[in-house]
Amino acid sequence: MATSQASALWKGNLSEGSGVMRLAKGGYDGPFTKASRFDSGDGTNPEELISAAHAGCFSMFLSAILSESGLPPAEIRTTAKVHLGEGPAITLIELETEAVVPGCSDSVFLEHADKAKSGCPVSKALGAVPMKLTARLAS
Asked: Which of 68, 100, 116, 122 has the most CB atoms lying inside 10 A of its own CB?
């Protein structure tokens, strides 16, 4: 199986410092600061990258489950919201997905989406965090 890698460099103290996060394959190089993490400052933050990873992982896993059951999706759109609370700690992840799946009923789609929520590798890695899923078929 694959091994993925990313790196981060932080310079300075928490309040005035800044950093950059980089994906090893070169697809992303983004700045981050205290303001981008805890306020509305420019740049990204670790929780935003977790959101992107979770949305991507869930979508791919749901596609695999649907395809294996004979219902290949035409499109899956997923948003993940990672809530950062006191501590700081990740307190909740909300997954919202909408898919175009020809021939799939609502009940079958919801069953498969729930399996993807609990089965995708990122969900498993974040298993201690409460997760909420909203899933629907698009027309």
From this structure: 116
Angle between helices 106-119 and 46-68 in degrees, nearest 10:
130
Q: How many CB atoms lie within 10 A of CB 95?
A: 24
Q: Could you tell me if 19 and 33 are in contact, meaning their C-beta atoms sit under 8 angstroms apart? A: yes
Do residues 109 and 57 both lie within one domain? yes
**Cα angle 60-82-111, degrees, rounded to a multiple of 5:** 45
What's the pLDDT tens digit per position in 99-135?
999 999 999 999 999 999 999 999 999 999 999 999 9
Degrees, nearest 5: CA angle 50-52-55 = 105
pLDDT tens, position by position, 57-97: 999 999 999 999 999 999 999 999 999 999 999 999 999 99
Q: What domain range is 110 assigned to?
A: 51-137
